[in-house]
TrEMBL record:
This is MerR HTH family regulatory protein. It holds the Pfam family B12-binding_2. It comes from Pedobacter nyackensis. Residues 1-43 form the HTH merR-type domain. One of its GO terms (molecular function) is metal ion binding. SUPFAM superfamilies: Cobalamin (vitamin B12)-binding domain, Putative DNA-binding domain. InterPro entries: Cbl-bd_cap, Cobalamin-bd_sf, DNA-bd_dom_put_sf, MerR-type_HTH_dom, Meth_synthase_dom. It comes from the Bacteria. GO terms for biological process: regulation of DNA-templated transcription.
């Protein structure tokens, strides 16, 4: 794919180039050799990828399809892919194999300047809306021992996808939640803890710019909570988390589901 050049001869790739590259990656990842793809016309590539899109269990294709829809701000296409995955695989598997990898992929593209922040926000808000719908669908079961969870994101963390998913899992398991959302000031946490008296506090850390500070943030949160703290999110899987009393790191979706189901 030859690059375009600015008047000062600097190479660059536009959105159409990136969409074409995503299509090529999708085909190559599903057994098409680069030499074969190179002989195809652009529309043939698009048609083949469209055929792959109907295979909802093909996580890599759905991830790339979501990326393409986000780049085009195509709400209809994005929502159709998202709903198709959930209907075919269920929300838990969709989160584990499609949406969390997609959000990580989009975050990397944003960090490198490949996509605009508006495209990341577009995708995140559509996922947020779908998660809220899925939470509303859950019929909370009656359980013998119902626990109370305080869910929030500390200062500097604004990505709610993982926290909303935690709320979904907790409701599905029959527990109570108080959901505060993103960027809660540390000064407010103790007041809420005192008033709500949860059995656990739950935070999710995913913002790449917080990576180097992840242990400092966890320590600061723990200074304001006097109950066990559950911590999930991609940063927990990627960085070494210091062992602390009352700290329960959940490194992946299986860890989250397993811990909550055993309570």
């Amino acid at each position: 794919m030859p690059p375009k050049r600015t008047p000062t001869n600097i190479r660059y790739y536009d959105d159409e180039d990136l969409k074409s590259l995503l299509n090529i990656v999708a085909l190559n990842g599903n057994g098409y050799k680069i030499s074969r793809i190179a002989k195809l016309h652009k529309q043939q590539v698009v048609d083949l990828v469209h055929q792959l899109n109907t295979d909802w269990d093909n996580e890599s294709v759905q991830l790339l399809s979501l990326s393409g829809a986000a780049m085009k701000y195509d709400e209809t296409a994005f929502s159709k892919i998202l709903l198709g995955c959930i209907e075919e695989m269920g929300l838990i598997k969709t989160m584990d194999t499609v949406l969390f990898p997609f959000m990580k992929h989009v975050g990397m593209l944003w960090q490198t300047g490949t996509i605009d922040p508006s495209q990341e926000h577009f995708a995140s808000n559509l996922i947020r809306d779908r998660l809220i719908v899925e939470i509303d669908k859950v019929v909370k079961p009656e359980i013998e021992k119902c626990m109370r969870f305080l869910l929030f994101l500390p200062e500097g963390e604004m990505h709610e996808t993982g926290l909303l998913f935690a709320r979904y899992l907790l409701k599905k398991c029959g527990h109570e939640t108080l959901y505060l959302g993103s960027e809660i000031p540390y000064a407010d946490i103790e007041k809420v803890i005192s008033a709500y008296q949860p059995d656990y506090a739950f935070i999710v850390l995913t913002s790449l710019n917080l990576g180097k500070d992840v242990n400092r943030i966890i320590t600061k949160v723990m200074q304001h909570v006097d109950v066990p703290l559950l911590v999930a999110g991609s940063l927990i899987a990627e960085f070494d988390i210091l062992v602390k009393d009352r700290l329960i790191p959940l490194k992946d979706v299986c860890g989250m589901v397993g811990f909550l189901e055993e309570l």
